[in-house]
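Entry for the shared binder. Reason: the reviewer on the internal report wants the predicted structure included alongside the sequence.
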Amino acid sequence: MEDLLTVKGLKYVYPAGNVALDGLNLEIKKGERLFVLGENGAGKTTFFLHLNGILKPTAGELFWRGEKFSYKKDFLLRLRQKVGVVFQDPETQLFAGTVAEEISYGLFNLGYTESKVREKVEETLKELGIWELRDRPIASLSLGQKKLVALGAILAMEPELLVLDEPTAFLDRYHTRLFLNIVERQWQKGITIVAATHEIDLAYRFADRVAVLHAGKLLASGPPEEILLESRILESANLEEPWLLRGSKILKDSGRLLAHEYPVKEEKKFWEVLGRVKTPRYGVTTGTVAAAAALGAARLLLLGEKMKAITINTPAGITFTLTPEILEKEDGEAVCGIRKDAGDDPDVTDQALIIARVRRQNFPGITIKGGRGVGVVTEPGLAVPVGEAAINPVPRQQIKEALEPLILGGETGLEVIIEVPEGEELASQTLNPILGIKGGISILGTRGIVVPYSREAYIESLQLQLKKALYLDLKRVVFVLGNKSKKVAQRLNVPPEAIVETGNYLGDMLKISENEGVEKILIIGYLGKLIKTYLGILNLHSQVARGQKEALALFLYSLGESQELINKIYSTKNVEQALEILKSAGKGHYLPVLARAVKEKLKSYYSGLTMDVAFTDISGAIIATTFDRLEEGWPWDG
């Protein structure tokens, strides 16, 4: 590759005596994208001011296509036509009255005719996407628009080498991406790009080669995927490791990235690799197993088919194939038993045998009942009415959807009885006794799958999710605690890329968000989970802490409520019962106050974040928020 500009032994000492550059040797090759890295004061800007002769070196030499810099007027005129410098602050570059006049100035100096100038001005401004600003006074432009005009004034003169000093400094994400896209198009047209930046992620993604400066000296130069692997160089220059490189290391060290793919440099490639990452093994919920067992028993009863493998869909859109352990028919009843596989999640019901008994009934439809080992609801406030078997709504729907194709158009319906032989014993290890569910376990699941939530896996995945959200220029991120709150976010038109499922690790995720520079977070979650944060509980898993009643009682006490009301709240079995008591007492208006109290508690831990909170009830409906107005259809991007 041809050397376009060569620097040999460059030294520059400012009049005050401080050495800005000290013996710099560097070649800029035709057609490359060279990024010069370094902290503030490393010498980047001083170096750039030498590239088109604005500064004359104290010592050393520079060559343009082999011709030594002479610093005479005719040479500098030719050089500055070929080497265009866009300064960090456009105010130091722009001086004309309007946008069109600014673009015109350099062209007239080059001897262009008036008609040619008009043609080039239109061509340049349309290329930048700011043709409509042509008659706008420079003083009325935003910083991002001024940066584009400064760039356009240089591009109009068709330079061979484009020099950019901190090109994205002070820009918002929209103008950053717009500016970089324009620069990338110029490089594709054959213009050589040299850019100075302290944004190492930017350099890693876009550079063909990097040069690292520190205290006016060149520490190293070469491909970014090689130079930026060197911790010694990064530490010496006070630079951080690029996040793409850090993410690549995480994937490689865990065996998820093939050796020849390391390190990943392109954003798109990274997300493709991440998409095929081997994640912890998903399991199935008791609801999915019950539905599969009911399907196996029904097909045996109605069709005489003894299935060796039963395929069942889940609300999460994932299909599982389960193997029956029991499948038999006698006395007009078919029985199918399948063991639950919780995947890599430490679940109390893992490997529990779930049995479905299916028989005909003399009226249409499907009746679902609980048998041995399935609990019965004895307290109000749960998803299932008092007196019913603790088979939640989603599992009931899964069973019906699995069986309905078998009885369409028929007058005979089916009765399904779900049993869990070990259910009563297993229930003692769950919250069912506290919740007022007696006699066995609950048949649960809103997504039909068990996602193995481990703290380490979440921390890793959150970092990557947030990086992707920021890369996609999303202004806000939504934390959802589970599937129901995720559906709330979807109803609010939140972009899918902005939704982060936190599970129980809300505290960890807020801390990481603060470190990553997330601008704003909306936390959507069930009141029974989020209320724990009022007590400073940031891991929301029930095995870590309960505290819902205590938090609500303390909140009411802080408002000066009566001991009678506080005692009533404290005697409830669940949050839904407590909500009913508050409403009956005319205290429903306390919920937004509680939401604000939770927000302030979280802010006390994570002061660097701007956040809001939305409470939902057990059905997923929003019941309180820290927003003045939040409803379904709320314009997320507004």
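Summary line for the report: The chain has four domains: 3-239, 242-278, 284-449, 454-625.
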